[in-house]
Design brief:
Elements: E1 3-9, E2 12-18, H1 22-40, H2 44-48, H3 50-116
Antiparallel strand pairs: 1-2
Helix pairs in contact: 1-3
Length: 132
């Protein structure tokens, strides 16, 4: 569904039609209007020449866009690196859990063997082979 929105940029009214929400289109228009005001404040010649102000605003908006694309790519690369680190850590945890389970099993086996050994007083609980 197309939305029809009335906006104002640089003191001029426009009607926009688009699939985006009215709030989104208003936000975009407000952003462009703010950039236009910033450009017009930079010098007297820019404030008097609308074409120059429009071109400089376009360049500034494009600059913002390219910086955000760079930032997004950098964040995606960082996210990929963090995912890799996370997978490596998960693998390490799995390996350590497996080793711990083997150690517990070995410990339990040792405990069971010790409990099954006959106890004899005075020899530390161990039998020795005695020849008769």
């Amino acid at each position: 569904m197309k939305n029809k929105v009335r906006i104002t940029i640089d003191g001029k009214s426009f009607t926009l039609m688009g699939n985006e929400s009215e709030e989104h289109m208003q936000s975009v228009a407000a952003y462009i209007d703010q950039k236009m005001r910033e450009i017009r404040q930079t010098s007297q010649s820019v404030s008097l020449d609308s074409s120059l102000a429009y071109v400089l605003t376009s360049i500034n908006v494009a600059d913002d866009y390219f910086k955000e694309v760079e930032r997004s790519l950098s964040l995606e690369a960082e996210l990929d690196e963090l995912k890799l680190q996370c997978m490596t850590m998960k693998n390490t945890i799995s390996e350590l859990e497996e080793k711990l389970e083997h150690a517990r099993e070995a410990h339990e086996a040792d405990q069971t063997a010790v409990e099954k050994e006959p106890q004899e007083s005075g020899n530390g609980g161990r039998y020795k082979n005695r020849k008769r």
